Amino acid sequence: MAQATLESAAAPRESAPAPAEAKPRRSGKAATGLLTTVLALLLALFIIGPLVWLGVRAFADTWTYPHLWPDSWTTHWWQVVFGDKALGVAVQNSLFFAPLTVLVSAVICLPAAYAFARFEFPGRRFFLIGLFAANAFPKMGLFVSLAALFYALNLMNSILGILIVHVLGTIVFMTWIPSAAFAAVPRSLEEAARDAGASKLRVFFSVTLPMALPGILVAAIMSFLASFDEAQGTYLVGAPDYMTMPTQMYSLVLNYPTQVAAVFSILLAIPSVALLLAAHKHIIGGQLAEGFQIK
Amino acid sequence: MALPPIVLIALFIGFPILLALGFSLGFTGGLNHTISVIGQNVHEAQGASPTFGAYGDLFVDRRFLGDLGVTVIVTLVSTTAVVVLATGIGLYLKFRGGVLGKILSGLAVVPLFIPVVIASWAILGFYSADGFLRSVFALAGLEFPVWSFSMVTVIIGSVWTSLPFATLLVTSGLQAVPQAMIDAARDAGASFWRVVTSVVVPMAGVPIIIATTFTAIGILGSFTVPYFTGPNSPNMLGVDMSNYFSAFNQPQQAVVMAFVVFIIASGIAAVYVWANFRSAKESGAV
User: Fold this and answer.
1) What ipTM is given for this predicted complex?
2) Residue of B nearest to A225 (CA)
3) How many Cβ pairs within 8 Å bridge chains A and B?
4) Residues A179 and A231 in one domain
């Protein structure tokens, strides 16, 4: 099906500049079309294959190598996961930390994003690059370095400590992406609203903020996922008192049957998939890409 | 207004990194006291002159040097694969579009939806001894190599997890190249490849460089993918850092590794900053 669409899409563009050449090049186009279809299938196998393979495992009872399908099916592993108290607590912890992280990060970063977009102040570019440099330091190394400070400030095994680790991982998203979104709001619109007698605050909340909202939304979702996905720092700071879903996943993989980890993986992926589907249009639409160019 | 995130970064990233730099050079007083008492094999500076003992420990250690090489190779190979794939998908979307183009770019973004822990676990299973590829080949009577717990799966996992971000950046960069310029080059008789190499890619150069540097820095410092899918040894420095810190209880050596990775990452970061300045200059901002 994809092949047919490809041919029809390519046809008009082909015929316009060189009608005489159309015939010999058509077979070449068919070969290229076939090649791209094969490459697309390989890419699909590469991307989707591992996920399907893992997903099937969550319902597998017995599975003999080299069969491509389990011999028998069961929902037993789902009961194991839902019956396990520790796993339930991990789910709760994750659902507690991720929204809180987004909130704290938004309060801290959004005003800064606006300032970076709208004001020229000394050291502006230095700070933007500083944000990026902070991102270049290896995460594991940072957590090792943080450990010394956290011991001294008594933040080890504390909610505040975990929250700090999570917020640190979201700063780049929460500053850069909304900053690009604020910068993209035309100043002429804001000025027009001012001329019509709107106060500065009114202009911000009625013009600037609604127009920048898609960018802020993408930033919030990326931050939510960053927090939801964070494992190394949480493990170092919070384990074993505060286990989140990803840190629980570490021990699941080592201590439980494969199928339990598969079930847990599906559960862990649900919020990410739901959120990203909701914001899919804006992420593909370039809000994310726009944010990663320092201006 | 710009202050809060900067203060947060200065306090919880900048300051700990400076502390760690001091610790790696043997300054074990102040806030570094606790960690230097807990840790083993800690080199202490004599007064104000730093010691490079921990650096020396590592740079004569064959295992560390091997892992450093592995880290650099994995980063190079994975980044190249990611950028080639992302550019290929972006070019297809730009020149052909259609349903297949949408499917390709949609596929490349899927990993963004999946937490890295799960991705690593799924990839490990897919290429393992009883994984899909070996099953398919076995049914056809062929023997396929076991890739789980080898650097092959680490590279596969790195490419898998880095692809969406690079694809988004590169695709939006390529889409921004004006169609009029491509048509003009075509009318002047330029072949498809000539148009790609002389017009499209140079014009989208900055986003491609940004995607490359971000991918490379991400893979260089990665932990989860090599930890789950890689061999015990040799492995990437992210895993070594964690091992030296927790399992071997040698925090000073772990911190030294972090700085080695940071120095390489800074080199890459410099390219990113340069690319951004170039783009700002072109658009007349500087």
Assistant:
1) 0.85
2) B115
3) 282
4) yes
